[in-house]
Every structure is written in structure tokens, then in C-alpha cells.
Amino acid sequence: MTLEQLHALFLAYPTICTDTRKITESCLFFALKGPNFNGNKFAKEALTKGAAYVIIDEEDHRVSEQCILVNDVLQTLQKLSTFHRNYSNAKVISITGSNGKTTTKELINMVLSKKYRTIATKGNLNNHIGVPLTLLSITNTTEIAIVEMGANHQKEIAFLSSIAQPDFGYITNFGKAHLEGFGGVEGVIKGKSELYDYLIANKKHVFLNADDPIQFQKLGSYTKRIGFSQSDHQFYNIKFIDANPFVALEVESIPIETQLIGKYNFTNCSAAILMGKYFNVPMEAIKVAIESYQPKNNRSQIINKKGFEIILDAYNANPTSMKAALENFAIMEAKNKTLILGDMFELGRDALKEHQSIADMTKNLSFNDVFFVGENFFAAKTSYEKFKSFHDLKEHLNQNRLKKGALLIKGSRGMALERVLDIL
Hints:
The protein is α/β, with parallel strands linked by helices. The chain has 3 domains: 69 residues, Udp-n-acetylmuramoylalanyl-d-glutamate--2,6- Diaminopimelate Ligase, Chain: A, domain 1 (3-Layer(aba) Sandwich), CATH 3.40.1390; 205 residues, UDP-N-acetylmuramoyl-L-alanine:D-glutamate ligase (3-Layer(aba) Sandwich), CATH 3.40.1190; 122 residues, Alpha-Beta Complex (Protein-Tyrosine Phosphatase, Chain A). Helix content is 36%, strand content 22%. The chain is built from 16 helices and 22 strands. It has a 7-stranded parallel beta sheet with strand order 8-9-7-10-11-12-13, sandwiched between helices. It has a 6-stranded mixed beta sheet with strand order 17-18-22-19-20-21. A hairpin with a 2-residue loop joins strand 17 and strand 18. It comes from Flagellimonas hymeniacidonis. Keywords: ATP-binding, Cell cycle, Cell division, Cell shape, Cell wall biogenesis/degradation, Cytoplasm, Ligase, Nucleotide-binding, Peptidoglycan synthesis.
């Protein structure tokens, strides 16, 4: 079966499934493989549950004419998504960066959906499987697709760009994330900049934070750059007002009060506003979109519970986002401030140094109580309470109740620190 024939089949059965536990009637089941699973083995089950066709790459599991044999299921999924992306008339905006990708993507979607029919990456499905699935969710009515791209090593963004072939792109920032895979901060900058490389090589438009020296330097005099800045009037001006705790900003003399905490969210909002202006979304609609957005999924959520004002930022963490969160928490107005910080993952040989840096920073910011949890923080030198595992932290908190007040909970996803909420 040719790619064109497979795409015609997809148009007839436009729902993609990769998990037999989520099979829907008349879907196309792509039998993906991984280190610990082989989707080919579930081809018969997928058909039994109602899949119209299954795409496999092992002859032994060809149980009926509804099984389409290809050389490599994953590559077929990726090629199909690129074919569909080019078949569609939708404009594609790609987003990457070390921090704030998902929040920025959601803000952009909120703003642009005020005028256009949009689709956007669901959750954080931003890898070599998630990007194709997002592209394949484009329908014949979609006008703009916002595609988030994640990476933990070099060449990955370049590969995802070749799949999505974006018309526009934006990099949120370059931070200390996935240092182990990227090979240090310079590797992060090089890896994330692969989106710039694709856009420039293909003469596409680039959105940028012109106040970020790395972005400004890398884009130089590129003529298709569209930027925002607080001070440089050759770019669109957006003014930061405050973040105590929620970000307030001003654009075209119009105040915007967000429901996002932390100054670090100013640039995320600014990028969405800039894109709204570029795509001619009315300013009043942009204001409504930004002000109505509420964070979720453990990303800087504000939760009031049993006398605690909790900032739950337990979706992920790296040294850059951790420091930004601590600086923001330090300037918040609150009588009692408690920190529960979990390990930051994928830092490689820099892990101990970066955890020690955070431990030192907490001391200098003079919080009331600080609790560290995880093997890396446990190895750091600090006078604050530290626990090697979440179980140890839980035992301590069950016997020693936290002082009520403001509480920041932050750590990498693998720490699952949202479990603290069940202890309070």
C-alpha cells in the first residue's frame, strides 16, 4: 500500500489508536513497538474491539485482510502525518524550549481560537510519536495547528521539525533542562535552536523574545522575525507590571491581569499576545483569552486547602525553572513560607552541583521551613530537613504537621510530589 493509499484510508477512518485499551470503533490501530512492548501482538485484539484496520510490521501477526503490512510502523505513522500536514491547508506553529512549552502552547491556543479553528498538542504529547498524532488530528476545518516539540538530546528537534514542517516557530527559552542528554547548557542551546535552523533554512517566520540575548543574537538580521520586547521599540512592546503572585502586564495601554503566578510566565503570555496580534485577533479578545486561562495538571496551580495556600508546581523541574520558582516565592507576600522540593532529573554529572546550588539558594532566601526529598538533595550539604525518599518525607509529615501558610511544592515528574496534598 502506498502512502497516498494509506492517507485515503485515514481520511475514511480518521481516528488513530496506538493502545488497544483505548480502541474506538472504526479506528486505525498502529502497532507500535517499544523496549517493553510489541503492538503487533495485539493486532487481532484491536480488530476484535472494533478497529477498521491495523498497521503492522511483522508478517506473523497478519491475521486478516484488515492487517496492513509495512516495513516500520513508527516510520509509517510519521510519514503519514507529514503527508496529512501537507494535504491540509492549516498553518503550523511549532513551540519548543527548556521551560514553559506547554503553558505557552495552551495560551497561544486560547488566544488564536478566539478567531480561528485551531488544534493543539494534547497534554505533553510532544515527542516522535506525539507530534505525528497531533498532526493527524488536523481536520478539514482546522486553520491553525499549534504543535509542541520536546527533546532531551540533539537532533531531535531537527527531526520533529522535518515531520511537522512548521510555517512559524517559537522557542520559549534555553535553560538547564535535560543536561545529561544534551551534553550541557551549550548543547541545550544548540539542540533547541534546531527549530530556528529549520525555519531560517526554509524562509519561514520566527517569533522571538527580543529581550532574550541568545534568541536576539541567533536570529541576527533575519528578516522574517517577529518579536516582543519590554524596551526595544523596533519590536512589539509589552510591559511587565507585577507578579505578586499573579502576573500583570500592559499592552497598548490595556492592563491584563492573569491567573498565572511567577514573573517567568510573563514571557509565556507575551508570546501568545504577540501571535494574537500577528494573526489579527482583536485586542479585547486577546485580553479575555489571557485573563481566563487557568493552569492545570500540577503546573503552578494555586490550591487553597486546610489553611494552606499551595503553589503546586510538581509537573516538572530543572535548575532554571526551580530558581525562577524560588525567586517568585521569595517575593510573595505571606506570613509563613514553606518549601517542599524534590529532585531534578536528567542532569547527569551536574546533578550534585545543581542540587547543591538550589540548597544554597534556599538558605539565602530565608524561608521559614524547607524540606528536600530525593537522593540528589539528600546528598547536598544543608541544615534543612532532607529525606532520601518520598516515604521518609511522608513519615515525617505524618508526625510533624506543617505550619499553615504559603507552601511551594516543586520537583521533577518522577518525584510525584502532588502526593503531598494527601498528607496535609
